[in-house]
Amino acid sequence: MRSLPVRIGYVLLLALAPVLAALYAGGTTIPGGTFEPWAPAMIDLDVYRRTGELVLAGGDFYNVEAWLPWIYPPFPALLAVPFAVVPPAVAQMLWLALNVACLMAMLYRLGLTGWQLSLSTAAIVWLVEPVRETLGFGQVAVFLVTAAVLDSMPGPTVFRRRLLPEGWLTGVATAVKLTPAVVAVYNFFAGKRRAGIISFLSFLACTLIGLVVLWGPSITYWGRLLSGDSGLNTGIVFKTNQSVLGVWTRLMGEASRGGLVLAALVAVLGVTAAVLMHRAGEVPLALCLAGLTSLLASPISWSHHYVWIVPFGIELLRNRRLPVYITVPGLLYSIWTAFAPFKLLPGDNDVELTYPPLHMLVDNLGVYAGVGILIACVIAAYTPWGRDRRRAQAQLRTRDAVAA
After folding, report:
1. Within 13 A of 221's CA, how many CA atoms are on the CB side?
2. What distance in Å separates the CA atoms of residue 20 and residue 14, rounded to the nearest whole number?
3. Rounded Cα gap, residues 116 and 101, in angstroms
């Protein structure tokens, strides 16, 4: 068995290629940033640092005259404080290092080890648009997906037993951004009610911490949200908004109630698909479907939010049990989302509302494909394949019960 220093050195060596890729992505992805000299334009991380500074100063971070406002709940403002007390370059490097650590932890859970883990992480940072831009902007998407994967994805673990019960990481992620709540709902209806309840309690605890420490901002945020103001009332039409409501707005010319109803129906469809795949024994796929549903049904899901295609694509590549009508469209969807060719379309000044039919199809194709995959999974659950999978799971449960 290797000594502790040797193991640490080995891990650092494996992290070298992903870290270098992350430093390059962080420095060059967003216009205005450079790699040499290393000067990233991590504009979202700048917002987090500004918010952390205002928390320390007792300022109102929801009413700031700035191009990019703080749109998250108060609780994550507390998490931003450590990044506000160090120099910008240190905060940027720390942010990228944490993202790399999360990506490697996610891929390890999916079964990748050694140099395969190292080189795959570097390639994903370099090639996959949602990951590359998340690092470039200094966004939180990688953290949110990793939290759900480490919480509920079956696979190899670093520790022999759980340090905390399933559900708590998803709850914390939901307290940072509300969309991971879809994963908690999936867990609850898939039969993992304890995990769903723990997610709710974890979310509630984090939210209460924000309420106690930041009372005024909490009243502002939750009051606005309950009145229908999510802080995301602009930009819904943008080409990079790859959500159901974004598609509706581009097609209909406005974000009307019909789009919200359609998004809610897609949320129900996605949770149903995830639960059915879970019952068929396809738990990793089910979790990925819940994660993708959280993005499709959200009012705004920028293209770089779709980090869920990383575990989704890997699961499709490694799973030989799935029907071809799920695997092939799913992989094509993953490739499309990874390279985001729709970003080549003209944008800004609501030009999306005047797209010719071909441009409109290209921009909306990813959302159509995502919804189509959810429908395919629901249909698959009622085919002979789905019935055979459920029967096999029932036999496994019976055998385990007898063995116990």
Report:
1. 24
2. 11
3. 15
Q: Is the pTM of this model over 0.85?
A: yes
Do residues 265 and 244 make contact, with C-beta atoms less than 8 angstroms apart? no
SS3 241: strand
- Give the integer Cα–Cα distance in Å for 191 and 278: 9
Contacts of 118 (CB under 8 A, 6+ apart): 13, 14, 15, 16, 17, 18, 104
> b or e along 363-401 (b: 16 or more beta carbons within 10 Å of the residue's beta carbon)?
bbbbbebbbebbebbbebbeeebbeebeeeeeeeeeeee
- Is-contact 260 245, C-beta < 8 A? yes
Instruction: Convert the pLDDT of each residue in 336-378 to its tens digit.
Output: 999 999 999 998 889 999 999 999 999 999 999 999 999 999 9
pLDDT single digits (tens) 100-127: 999 999 999 999 999 999 999 999 999 9
Task: Name the β-bridge partners of 241.
Answer: 302
β-sheet bridge partners, residue 302: 241
Segment holding 110, helix H or strand E:
none
d(CA 114, CA 100): 15
Q: Is 86 helix (H, G, I), strand (E, B) or coil?
A: coil
Decide if 202 contacts 175 (C-beta within 8 A): yes
**Euclidean distance between CA atoms 145 and 118, whole angstroms:** 19
CA distance 167 to 152: 7
Q: How far apart are CA 141 and CA 177, in angstroms?
A: 9
Hey, is 15 helix, strand or coil? helix
The answer to whether 169 and 192 have CB atoms below 8 angstroms apart is no
